[in-house]
Design brief:
Blueprint lengths: L2 E9 L4 H11 L3 E10 L2 E9 L7 H15 L1 E7 H7 L3
Antiparallel strand pairs: 1-3, 1-4, 2-3
Helix pairs in contact: 1-2
Length: 90
């Protein structure tokens, strides 16, 4: 399984989760786990997804998610699990 961590951060607006999840579904990316909070109008979401059946290359997905984030007013970051783990290792 090719796990990837996706984070979404920004001012809360209607439809953020729907738009991100629609993009993932349209591109064959399965959501394994999701956590979302809103703190004083700021939206924060972390997802663990499986990229095994993704219909596009990882780099293209990273780029398209970043553009999607810009269009809806949030920042979307996408990292492979092994890189995320190395960055957050104690």
């Amino acid at each position: 399984m090719k796990k990837t961590i996706i984070t979404v951060v920004g001012k809360d607006t209607v439809g953020i989760i729907a738009k991100v999840c629609t993009y993932l579904a349209d591109n064959g990316i399965n959501i394994l786990d999701i956590s979302q909070t809103i703190v004083q109008d700021y939206f924060n979401m972390m997802m663990i997804v499986d990229m095994n059946k993704a219909t596009k290359d990882f780099g293209v997905i990273v780029e398209e998610l970043a553009k999607l984030g810009e269009s809806i007013g949030v920042i979307i970051k996408c990292q492979k699990e092994e890189i995320f783990n190395q960055m957050h290792r104690i």
